[in-house]
Design goal:
Elements (H helix, E strand, L loop, with lengths): L1 H18 L10 E2 L5 E4 L3 E3 L8 E4 L3 E3 L7 E4 L4 E3 L4 E2 L1 E3 L5 E3 L4 E2 L3 E2 L5 E3 L4 E2 L3 E2 L5 E4 L2 E2 L3 E3 L4 E4 L3 E3 L2 E3 L14 E4 L4 E3 L2 E3 L4 E5 L7 E2 L3 E4 L8
Parallel strand pairs: 1-3, 2-4, 3-5, 4-6, 5-7, 6-9, 7-10, 8-11, 9-12, 10-13, 11-14, 12-15, 13-16, 14-17, 15-18, 16-19, 17-20, 18-21, 19-22, 20-23, 21-24, 22-25, 24-26, 25-27
Length: 231
């Protein structure tokens, strides 16, 4: 399945970031410089307004402050948090939450395996937004490359716009025991351009004021108001 390749890619990416001469450290928190930063068993901080290169860590979080700029940012065990109007080439983690602040921009993909994903008002992603498990929430955000998950819930709220559709993959391999039905909610004013494809059973709620593409593998449950009655 596709998510296994992504997990492997995250490990390789993060290892490559740390292996490069990126102001690297072992066992400690670091602050990113123009050249970037890498560490093991520590977090990385990119101060507000900083223009940094790639950053990567194992067993630590990455904090990108408001108006900062980084290249690729990747960790294995830890959250990735982008401040308002910050910019990155790509974001990835394996076990951790990903948050994009208001107006933050990621040029390519935002991916995690086990972790929630929150895109705040005006956040913009030029590639896909993808996880295996964890709640994906868009609040008036834009995603150009589609949403993809295996077992996570999805809430597309406000005036969010998603190009590339939505895919919920069939649970298999390590995740084959997951019998829970993910909940997908497309709220008023939201627009999903492209197909909505479901390879497993889900609960799909779509506002009567939302715009969506063709649906396969699920029955649309229409609702009025801000959210479904059983939300």
């Amino acid at each position: 399945m596709q998510h296994y390749y992504h997990l492997t890619a995250l490990v390789v990416l993060t290892g490559a970031l740390i292996g490069c001469d990126l102001n690297g450290h072992v066992n400690g928190d670091v602050t990113a410089t123009q050249a970037g930063a890498g560490t093991v068993n520590g977090s990385i901080h990119v101060p507000a307004g900083t223009h940094s290169g790639d950053v990567g860590t194992v067993n630590g979080s990455i904090h990108i402050d408001d108006n900062a700029t980084v290249g690729a940012a990747g960790t294995v065990n830890g959250a990735v948090d982008m401040g308002a109007h910050a910019t990155a080439d790509s974001l990835s983690t394996i076990n951790g939450e990903v948050t994009l602040g208001a107006g933050a921009h990621v040029a390519r993909a935002v991916t995690t395996v086990n972790g929630a994903m929150h895109l705040q008002d005006g956040a913009d992603v030029g590639g896909r937004v993808e996880n295996v498990n964890g709640h994906i929430v868009l609040a008036a955000a834009h995603v150009a490359g589609g949403l993809r998950t295996v077992g996570g819930d999805i809430d597309v709220t406000g005036s969010s716009r998603v190009e590339g559709g939505i895919v919920v993959e069939k649970s298999s391999g390590w995740f084959n025991r997951d019998t829970r039905r993910p909940r997908i909610v497309i709220g008023p004013a939201a627009a999903i351009q492209g197909p909505l494809r479901f390879e497993r059973e889900v609960r799909l709620y779509v506002s009567d004021k939302a715009t969506i593409g063709p649906v396969t593998g699920a029955t649309v449950i229409r609702f009025s108001g801000d959210r479904p009655s059983d939300y």
